[in-house]
Design brief:
Largest sheet: 8 strands, mixed
CATH topology of the domain at 10-131: Aminopeptidase
Number of helices: 4
CATH class of the domain at 10-131: Alpha Beta
Mean pLDDT: 91
Structural class: alpha+beta
Order of helices and strands: EEHHEEEHEHEE
CATH superfamily of the domain at 10-131: Gcn5-related N-acetyltransferase (GNAT)
Low-confidence stretches: none
Helix content: 10-25%
Strand content: 25-35%
Distance between the termini: 32 Å
Shape: globular
Strand order of the largest sheet: 1-2-3-4-5-6-8-7
Radius of gyration: 16 Å
């Protein structure tokens, strides 16, 4: 899309590298995504097999960066999760999604990655007014990430259909932050 500002393809934080996905990341994705605990709140195939990892990574590689930037979260040289934005330039908003390998839970990596992406989005896209994220209402760790980012709980979606499993209708929550509420990373 010509004339639309784009986000950086590489973002470095104190402990992480956020970068574009590579087809070579499929082994790393399979290593964490095959963990049933990792996927309990995600609509991914179960069991998660190599072909699923290859298809997922290929899709992320092919995403249109101007509307759906999708970064691998690299921890100690390995793709250990992902974070993305779905940008709606006309509506001046974005929706963020993220997931991290279970071996890295509880260390603040996801908050660090999400803070860097929000910072880059507001810095790179001057018209962007709002970023939102959602989670299963039982996913307290994801909700805590959104709260640490300063996002505001805007609502609960009751009995939200999810994936192809008929019994997967559970409540979801939506959080968001507006540009004028955001405190940029300093230093």
């Amino acid at each position: 899309m010509s004339g639309v500002p784009v986000l950086p393809e590489r973002i470095e934080t104190e402990r992480l590298v956020l970068r574009r996905w590579s087809l070579a990341d499929a082994d790393d994705v399979l290593a964490y995504a095959a963990d049933p605990e990792w996927s309990r709140f995600l609509p991914v195939p179960k069991p998660y097999e190599r072909r699923h990892a290859e298809e997922a990574v290929a899709g992320w590689v092919l995403e249109d960066w101007s509307t759906h930037p999708d970064w691998a979260i690299e921890v100690a040289g390995r793709a250990s999760g992902g974070i993305n934005l779905r940008l709606n330039h006309q509506q001046r908003n974005a929706e963020m999604g993220y997931a991290l390998a279970r071996r890295h839970w509880g260390r603040g990596y996801m908050t660090e990655a999400a803070r860097a992406v929000i910072d880059a989005a507001f810095a790179s896209l001057p018209d962007l007014a709002r970023i939102q994220a959602g989670a299963n209402a039982r996913n307290t760790a994801s909700i805590r990430v959104m709260e640490k980012l300063g996002m505001t709980h805007e609502g609960t979606i009751r009995h939200a259909p999810r994936g192809s499993e008929p019994h997967a209708n559970e409540s979801g929550v939506i959080y968001a932050i507006l540009r004028d509420e955001w405190s940029p990373i300093t230093g």
